[in-house]
Specification:
The chain has about 100 residues and is mainly alpha-helical. The chain has a domain at about 5-40: Histone, subunit A. Helices cover about 40% and strands about 5% of the residues. It has three helices and two strands; from the N terminus they run αααββ. A two-stranded antiparallel sheet has the order 1-2. The two termini are about 50 Å apart. The relative contact order is 0.08.
Length: about 100
Amino acid sequence: MALGPDEVKKIAHLARLAIDEKDVDGYARNLSNILDLFTQMNNIDTSGVVPMAHSQDVSQRLREDVVSEHNQRERFQKIAPQTENGLYLVPKVIE
């Protein structure tokens, strides 16, 4: 799919991009090449390809889930301006 200078200017306007007039032809050529690549990729038969979530079949190393701090909830609730039933009360910010 070939894009012309007018289409590039319209795309730039919609994207709110300022481009120099001298660069329009280059952008049109580059965008046309990108769209042609997508067309080529759409024509490839991928019926035998198994979908995957990631290109490498690896799992993340996870640390052991252990408690690293003791519970200080009561201490923090005592110094809070307002609490009720174990919850912190905050001013309403949305009407």
